[in-house]
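assembly run, all chains below
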Amino acid sequence: MFELLGIPPQALFGQLLLGLINGSFYALLSLGLAVIFGLLNIINFAHGAQYMMGAFLAWMLMTYFGIGYWWALLLVPIAVGASGVVIERLMISRLYHLDHLYGLLLTFGLALIIQGLFRNQYGVSGLPYTIPAELSGGTNLGFMFLPNYRGWVVLASLVVCLGTWFTIEKTKLGAYLRAATENPTLVGAFGINVPRMITLTYGFGVGLAALAGVLAAPIYSVNPNMGADLIIVVFAVVVIGGMGSILGAIVTGFGLGIIEGLTRVFYPEGSAVVIFVIMALVLLVKPAGLFGRTV
Amino acid sequence: MVEAAPLIRPEAGTAELAVRDLHGWYDESHVLHGINFDVRPGEVVTLLGRNGAGKTTTLKAIMGILSKRTGSVRFMGRELIGLPARAIARAGIAFCPEERGIFSSLSVEENLMLPPTIRDGGLSRDDVLGIFPNLRERLQSQGTKLSGGEQQMLAIGRILRTGAKFLLLDEPTEGLAPVIVQQIGATLRTLKQRGFTIVLVEQNFHFAASVADRHYVVEQGRVIDEISDAELAANTEKLHAYLGV
Ligand SMILES: Nc1ncnc2c1ncn2[C@@H]1O[C@H](COP(=O)(O)OP(=O)(O)OP(=O)(O)O)[C@@H](O)[C@H]1O
Ligand SMILES: [Mg+2]
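ok done. output:
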């Protein structure tokens, strides 16, 4: 067996894969944040809680109704996205005429409430969610052993991210979204219902978070704090990629996952902070983020 | 509103757009103090006036972009005060803003195709590109990479597709080279022939004179005079005084 800088290849590829998996979640979550921030100008602090809700809802469907993973993958994002629509209509939409800070405070408060409710009900110890039978087991790739479910997560995240990117950058619907992000007043004066677009966009971003939650359920234990832990890193990813940049969120999400994985191989002590170090450096050199538009 | 008795009291009835005692505010600052004017079907009417007179604000108030407004704006018999901008657009009024409003994150083509069709009878994409051939070679460019003149053509062109036959154009010639001003003038005359009704805000009153049927003079948030195009020559001095040129 060859060794790379004294590292056995299994360890290297293993950490790379782990990095890719984490990157899949970073990308999905920061993509949702970026979409929401672009149009609503609000940093959705409830994003982590909504991701957690996704995982819990999948668990509840399975536990209480016997509804399995594949249905959960479809139903949970719709249900949690719908809860986002309600939250936007009833609460967030009342804050648009105020400073952005109020939206941040509101969603932060919502996150605390949602997490508190789940903690009350289910405690903090993780609940198990089994990998669907179709994706159990693994594949020997020759240079490493790939658990099928993990491969699926990376693939699903890539497809959803690229699909979202394509929709926003290349379709008519996306053109409306980009235009409304730039100048909602004028888009409204063309006869387009911008408030409804904003509501649906929030619902979509929240749905992405919930989808990530369902994907995460079989990998990470389902518990009320799972989102709170993850979302801090995701905010750093968003800052590095550039607020509101769609492609930036995707590339930075996967990229930082991989960098984190490599750090775990070559300098394990630094793996917990490497993303924040990069964030600090990016802020110093390019405050708008790597993909942010410098206005 | 007795103290601010408007000087112009046009007859309603035949008007496509009738603006009466229109007041408008930016937050607490009261900018429109009772605007009155009429636009009849097929007319080109200008709003002339100095910087800060309230011309842009008048268009924004008609369009519903200025949300704090009172008075009456009747369009084809229907009251527009109280409606949101999107409903006013759907009623058949199209707006081309002073700053042109070309989207930088959209290509020229996407900018052109953005405003939704609200009714049949608008120009086709090819009609618009026929009127503004400069745009055709630049369709894939980023919208804001166009020159100022091309951006203005795009800003006018895209609202011609919607089927709206009533246009609010805010200073379409501002800052443009004379040859482009002429091209836009020719376009406006073509549009008039095709049955469009146009409210044109202008500071360039030679340009205004070349395209419009009537002129309203706006000062400090009021319409203070009306001059038909035929009377224009006889009133040049008065106009110069109004416009401070
Ligand atoms: N967004 C705003 N907030 C507060 N006041 C404004 C705003 N926009 C314009 N005003 C004020 O309202 C008044 C009328 O402005 P408006 O833009 O309607 O003038 P205008 O006739 O279009 O002038 P110009 O020929 O320079 O475009 C001015 O006193 C201006 O300072
Ligand atoms: Mg103006």
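The beta strands of chain A are 138-140, 145-147.

The longest strand of chain A covers residues 138-140.

not gonna interpret more than that til we talk
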